[in-house]
Amino acid sequence: MSAERKDDHVRLAVEQQHGHSGHNQFDDVSFVHHALAGVDRSDVSLATSFAGVEWQVPLYINAMTGGSEMTGAINRDLAIAARETGVPIATGSVSPYFKNPDTAETFSVMRRENPDGFIMANINATTSVDNARRAIDLVRADALQIHLNTIQETVMPEGDRSFSSWGRRIEEIAAAVGVPVVVKEVGFGLSRETVALLEKSGVAVADVGGSGGTNFARIENGRRELADYAFLDGWGQSTPACLLDAGGAGIPLLASGGVRDPLDVVRSLALGAVAAGASGPFLRTVVDDGVEALVAQLSTWLDQIAALMTALGARTPAEMASKDVLVHGALRSFCDDRGVA
Ligand code: FNR
């Protein structure tokens, strides 16, 4: 069942990428153009650091898959592309390995193919501290991601319905493991209240994982035969909304969910993120066109992120946070409703 679910997720996520309208709330963020603000490309560094972590680039391949033969092959290709481009990467949820140790290889292949890269292991918020350690050991992870997915579980036919212990478990894991803990949503967003709770729990970094890209309410709906939850299609906050909402949080923010191109990465940095990640867009490339196409896509993104920073006059990702942005439309209304200046 679990292996079949992992294959379903990949198939339905790629279908969503094919059908995506292209529009999301990142379009409500634009830069004020200052024609004399530019710097020299040779002075621009993409390196970003946060919570004791150093990345050479402000871009990462976010959590997706593992646990079946097909998804193990995808993980191998994602890891090769990460190695070739120096882009940090996350495993998909390691839960299948806890249930069936025979699936170990579908995750550990990522470390074998990418021996020196930055790898995050991904678990859910019901994982025991012992299993959190096993997940880290499996890929010799540099950081641990814990995903929050109440809405996905709600729509998933075989989903979890007990959420009250998640906060306590996150606190236990963050205190016990020796690597930075990143807590992420899977596409419905983190509110500023949630980010504040995470900070108190000892979590190092919050990945806002907002809406606007891969939609797990729709994916799980696609796996249901009866009583579908189509009315949850628009649930949650978009990634730029989350960044604005949680701006000034005491812990660093990562931006993911609906990041479509290098401009969305640079917009995320301008809204205060230390880096931006994507899943669906990279999955589509590797499934449709193969690993070399993904290497080319990641290289192009990195080159264009640097080009945009050069024109905007940001020598580092951190300098992007002081650039002039305008917020329009539904995103502006969200800010008004939430009292965001
Ligand atoms: C995901 N995502 C995900 N997240 C997570 O924390 N653990 C997981 O196991 C998975 N599995 C998974 C499978 C597939 C096929 C996709 C496409 C995505 C969610 C992912 O990390 C991310 O939060 C969302 O996909 C939103 O980002 P994009 O796709 O809009 O860039």
Automatic annotation (TrEMBL):
EC number: 5.3.3.2
Domain FMN-dependent dehydrogenase stretches: 160-323
Gene Ontology annotations of biological process type: isoprenoid biosynthetic process
UniProt-annotated location(s): Cytoplasm
Alphabetized InterPro entries for the sequence: Aldolase_TIM, FMN-dep_DH, IPdP_isomerase
Single Gene Ontology MF annotation: isopentenyl-diphosphate delta-isomerase activity
PANTHER family (UniProt xref): ISOPENTENYL-DIPHOSPHATE DELTA-ISOMERASE (PTHR43665)
Name of the protein this chain belongs to: Isopentenyl-diphosphate delta-isomerase
